[in-house]
Amino acid sequence: MRQIVLDTETTGLSADNGDRIIEIGCVELLNRKLTGNNLHFYVNPERDSHEDALKVHGISNEFLRDKPKFAAIADELLDYLRDAEVIIHNAPFDISFLNKEMERLGHPPITTILGQVTDSLVMAKEMFPGKRNGLDALCDRLGVDNSGRTLHGALLDAELLADVYINMTRGQDALLMDLGDAPGEDGQVEVLDLSRFDLPVLRANASEAQAHDGVLADLDKASKGKTVWRKLEPA
Questions:
Q1: Which residues are marked as active site?
Q2: Distance CA 222, CA 224 (A)
Q3: How far is CA 39 from the centre of its chain?
Q4: Prediction pTM value
Q5: For the segment 170-201, what is each residue's pLDDT rounded down to a tens digit?
Q6: How far from the centroid of its chain's Cα atoms is residue 148's Cα?
Q7: Is residue 20 a contact partner of residue 45, using CB atoms and an 8 Å limit?
Q8: Could you read off the pLDDT of 19-57 as tens digits, one per residue?
């Protein structure tokens, strides 16, 4: 399965109001593994970035003056993305900009050539409801090193998002036995039934049990005696 993690930087927040793409970063995954076959462009947007956008990405208007316009990189980008699952954090934002660029060139929406679009922000909100789910917050939560991210950059952010996505979708891989990924007769990889094994039970020692009771007591005190296990204790 071919997946592309994609990010863009733009001159502002609204494609409909004339803001343009200034950078595109794409990272390729094959069977959930990084291939190194990445794609990266700086793009001349033919207009200046808003001051607030400059504070986010730090890409100066002068730096972009001699970069190719979107029309010059469109075919290479489309060939690279064709039929892939594209993973984007807050996908409607990036897709709106890409579609607007396609419209300027007289092309159909970019979604018509993609296999599918996966919004990692929607996934994160379902996994971590009520929490901050920006890229930096997810990196911190999932143990992804983002120490090099002082400003937003499309390729760096796509690389970080690839790590975040792999961590978010890892599931219970650690509980599956490695069978060398050899498919069975039906084409599916066999999952070993762990119930066949006699798994040891490691019981808590006295000090561990005492520490556990202390944690329960603190929780019970904090809830003013309303913890479920206290309510279920026999009279």
A1: 152
A2: 6
A3: 17
A4: 0.71
A5: 864 433 334 444 455 555 555 666 566 666 77
A6: 17
A7: yes
A8: 999 999 999 999 999 999 999 999 999 999 999 999 989
